[in-house]
């Protein structure tokens, strides 16, 4: 096996200048894409208690199934889609994904019954397959490992902001759009208006994105050369150390173990995303409150404000210390303990404090998690491995809303479902700790080696 070339001479001024240009060029745009993506994926959570469930005759379990069936189609095509992105380039493939999902998302405005809703949610998952792992893979082409968690966090800020901005926006569209066009109910109008931007910005992707640093005409020649050399050297080191082809990356115990850690964080994320509006709507019965749709939207946004702050600060701390495992495990466990407590509080204020702690935990864990698999996967192996981790993790996107809704129907309240959410998140944190009980803060490679060494010694 050939040895990697020596590291390029460190040039702090060049690194700072180039990474600033790359961050300003890519991360805001990618965050906008993910904002639209996540909003189209989860706005059904706001539509449900604001007219859709009543109009289509959905029970809690049926609503949970409609929310979660998206992930069946999504998971089926995750790996093939990411391999296609690696082959054809991010510019073409992400543009294709966005246009196709925008068409399906807008079509949800015209569903006549539950069966059609299930079908379109399934198709939406197929259309979106590969988007998130594709972006994670794309970031590995542009950001060295030492900057990757921060870059991932800036991209993933779209998750909390899709609720901070998206919940009030959805509320306004539902309230103001009722019977505005063609007699559409407010929730139908919301689906239509929120689906169109994906089509438009998908066209923009074709012209705006650059596949690799060597093609970046928006960098100076010496900047392109520096970044290309930096990324090629890093990839050659990873390949020389681990060298996992596609098939092997799909069977690695370390990849599957990390997938189940990610499952726990995603379980909490989607349970909160899909059912928080329903929980807040239930405050009227539980606490005797009277919030209108727009006020409910603002309340829904509050936990994600704190989540956004934790996402940025915690990922920066992870990059600074170069410790990853506890930066995933600790927020997962704290968030898992907090979420079921929310429904035992004696006021909406204290309940939302507990929900906010859960959001802080989820948002803190997610970007730090993605620094782990990209330490030892590269090339087509990274495309397949990242997609597999995202597939297994996002199976929680099907299970979380369905199980939460089913338990709500079975027991008559949300408590049991949120206890399951808490247990799954805590178990994910414990699994991360079991994989690496004593992280070293000074050597990212040593951290990763210790982490994966406890999962299996297949090499």
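-> sequence recovered:
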């Amino acid at each position: 096996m050939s040895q990697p070339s020596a590291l390029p001479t460190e040039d702090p001024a060049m690194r700072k200048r180039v990474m600033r240009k790359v961050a300003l060029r890519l991360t805001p745009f990618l965050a906008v894409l993910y904002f639209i993506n996540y909003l189209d994926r989860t706005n059904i959570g706001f539509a449900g208690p604001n007219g859709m469930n009543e109009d289509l005759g959905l029970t809690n379990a049926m609503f949970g199934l409609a929310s979660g069936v998206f992930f069946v189609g999504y998971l089926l095509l995750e790996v093939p889609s990411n391999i296609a992105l690696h082959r054809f380039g991010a510019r073409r493939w992400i543009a294709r994904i966005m246009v196709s999902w925008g068409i399906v998302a807008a079509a949800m405005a015209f569903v006549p019954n539950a069966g059609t809703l299930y079908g379109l949610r399934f198709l939406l998952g197929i259309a979106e397959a590969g988007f998130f792992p594709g972006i994670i893979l794309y970031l590995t082409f542009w950001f060295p490992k030492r900057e990757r968690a921060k870059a991932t966090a800036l991209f993933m800020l779209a998750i909390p902001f899709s609720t901070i901005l998206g919940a009030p926006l959805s509320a306004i569209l539902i309230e103001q759009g009722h019977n505005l066009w063609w007699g559409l109910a407010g929730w139908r109008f919301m689906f239509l208006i929120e689906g169109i931007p994906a089509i438009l910005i998908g066209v923009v992707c074709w012209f705006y994105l650059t596949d690799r640093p060597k093609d970046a005409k928006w960098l100076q020649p010496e900047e392109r050369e520096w970044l290309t050399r930096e990324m090629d050297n890093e990839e050659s080191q990873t390949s020389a150390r681990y060298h996992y082809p596609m098939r092997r990356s799909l069977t690695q115990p370390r990849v599957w173990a990390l997938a189940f850690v990610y499952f726990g964080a995603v379980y909490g994320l989607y349970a909160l995303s899909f059912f928080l509006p329903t929980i807040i709507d239930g405050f009227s019965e539980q606490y005797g409150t009277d919030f209108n749709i727009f006020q409910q939207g603002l309340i829904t946004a509050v936990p994600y404000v704190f989540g956004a702050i934790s996402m940025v600060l915690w990922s920066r701390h992870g990059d600074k210390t170069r410790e990853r495992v506890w930066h995933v495990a600790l927020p997962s466990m704290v968030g898992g303990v907090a979420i079921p407590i929310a429904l035992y509080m004696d006021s909406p204020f204290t309940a939302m404090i507990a929900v906010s702690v859960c959001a802080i935990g989820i948002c803190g864990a997610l970007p730090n998690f993605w620094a782990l698999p990209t330490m030892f996967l590269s090339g087509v192996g990274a495309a397949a491995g990242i997609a597999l981790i995202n597939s297994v993790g996002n199976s929680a996107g099907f299970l979380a809303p369905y199980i939460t809704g089913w338990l709500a129907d079975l027991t008559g309240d949300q408590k049991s479902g949120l206890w399951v959410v808490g247990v799954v998140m805590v178990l994910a944190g414990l699994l991360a700790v079991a994989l690496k009980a004593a992280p070293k803060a000074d050597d990212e490679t040593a951290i990763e080696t210790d982490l994966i060494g406890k999962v299996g010694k297949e090499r």
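The two ends are 14 Å apart (CA to CA).
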